[in-house]
């Protein structure tokens, strides 16, 4: 069975997208699945959060997208396999702008490893540019991490508009798998109201799992590891394992 591809997308930055991509992937790996993380963000935070220095990479996702380098050549094995990004990726949108079929570059690259993995998780940049469009075109599902505040909610509308354009033109089957409340501080009324608002608007698309703000959550990437490895019995690790179960059970709906 070819791999199921899941993009994590939200054009608003700072919503724990990278952290969620990595930790959800590691939770899937703990369940025995073969997992690839693909870093499509020029900041390379996912790459760094597995202890890989983006500045010392010979080749990265830039080469895969622009020079058609086989994706296997940029994959490093860590807690999960990581297709690495570096700052070069910031130039990919311009370099690809004249390419025919540029929106499908990632889809084609991932097709080469479709049988090697059960799941591919794609971390996207905080914009709806060509890199994110490539990710959404290559994906079966999208998980949207949302910080529980009103400004993040507005971003959801833009993302939905982009998704419907992609469905019309590039990938008719892509859909939102779920909306994930992140950086939740349940002590504040604002967070509770924001979650209620999400549930009013999106119903059962909102995951039951909640990713809370914890100190460990911020420390883990600095140590170059997932929070599941860094603090395996902590709240954040537990939340990501719950989320993995939710996503897996959605597949059986």
Description of the molecule:
This protein has 253 residues and is α/β, with parallel strands linked by helices. It has a single domain, classed as Rossmann fold (3-Layer(aba) Sandwich). Strands 3-4-2-5-1-6-7 form a seven-stranded mixed sheet, sandwiched between helices. The protein contains eleven helices and seven strands. Strand 6, helix 7 and strand 7 form a beta-alpha-beta unit. It starts with a strand and ends with a helix.
Global morphology: globular
Query: How many angstroms does the end-to-end distance come to?
Result: 18 Å
Instruction: From the alpha carbons, calculate the radius of gyration and give it in angstroms.
Output: 17 Å
Low-confidence stretches: none
Number of folding domains?
1
Helix fraction bin: 40-55%
Give a short summary of the structure.
With about 250 residues, the protein is of the alpha/beta class. Helices cover about 40% and strands about 15% of the residues. The protein has a 7-stranded mixed sheet, with helices on both faces.
List keywords for this structure.
alpha/beta, seven-stranded mixed beta sheet, 11 helices, 253 residues, Rossmann fold, 14% strand
Which helices and strands appear, and what pairs or packs with what?
Layout lengths: L3 E5 L8 H14 L4 E5 L5 H4 L12 H6 L8 E3 L3 E3 L8 H5 L8 H7 L7 E5 L6 H9 L2 E7 L2 H20 L5 E8 L6 H14 L12 H8 L4 H4 L4 H16 L3
């Amino acid at each position: 069975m070819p791999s199921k591809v899941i993009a994590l997308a939200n054009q608003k930055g700072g919503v724990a997208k990278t952290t969620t991509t990595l930790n959800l992937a590691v939770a899937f790996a703990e369940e025995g699945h073969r997992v690839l993380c693909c870093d499509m963000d020029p900041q390379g935070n996912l790459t760094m959060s597995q202890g890989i220095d983006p500045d010392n990479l010979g080749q990265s996702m830039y080469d895969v997208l622009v020079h058609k380098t086989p994706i296997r050549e940029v994959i490093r094995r860590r807690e999960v396999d990581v297709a690495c990004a570096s700052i070069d990726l910031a130039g990919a949108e311009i370099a690809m702008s004249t390419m025919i079929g540029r929106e499908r570059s990632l889809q084609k690259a991932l097709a080469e490893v479709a049988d090697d993995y059960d799941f591919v998780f794609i971390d996207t940049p905080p914009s709806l540019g060509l890199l994110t469009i490539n990710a959404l075109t290559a994906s079966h599902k999208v998980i949207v991490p949302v910080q529980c505040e009103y400004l993040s909610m507005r971003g959801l509308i833009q993302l939905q508009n982009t998704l419907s354009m992609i469905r019309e033109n590039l990938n008719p089957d892509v859909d939102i798998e779920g909306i994930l409340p992140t950086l939740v501080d349940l002590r504040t009324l604002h967070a509770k109201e924001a979650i209620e608002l999400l549930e009013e608007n999106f119903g059962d698309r909102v995951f039951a799992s909640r990713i809370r703000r914890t100190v460990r959550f911020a420390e883990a990437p600095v140590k170059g590891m997932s929070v599941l490895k860094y603090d395996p019995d902590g709240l954040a690790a537990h939340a990501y394992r719950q989320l993995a179960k939710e996503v897996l059970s959605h597949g059986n709906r």
